[in-house]
């Protein structure tokens, strides 16, 4: 059980870190692909030159990060579903244990009342 929780926690922290990086890249200032120093520069010679090719490259990059973000969100939802399932199973086990202990308690009380009479 502990291993499952640790695994889910590792997946979750990895997804959150990558998600933050993707968001930071997506929300930079300036028009993407418009040349160096305007929010779209530093991404290679095509991007630094600006123009239509730079904008096209910026659009491809945005599309890549949008797909990456969708994939990460899907993975995050999956991790949450796994955690929910794990906790629901734990609740069921605890409820069963509570019922078992209540039955034992009732049995002990019956035995105790039999001894008194």
Automatic annotation (TrEMBL):
- The record's region (Disordered) falls at 32-53, 96-117
| Predominant location category | mitochondrion
Q: Which domain of life is it from?
A: Eukaryota
From start to end residue, where is composition biased (Gly residues)?
32-45
Under the heading InterPro entries, the entry gives:
ATPase_inhibitor_mt
What SUPFAM superfamilies does the annotation carry?
F1 ATPase inhibitor, IF1, C-terminal domain (SSF64602)
Tell me where in or outside the cell this protein is found: Mitochondrion
Keywords from the UniProt entry: Coiled coil, Mitochondrion, Transit peptide
Family listed? Belongs to the ATPase inhibitor family.
Protein name, entry field: ATPase inhibitor, mitochondrial-like
Its source organism is: Saccoglossus kowalevskii
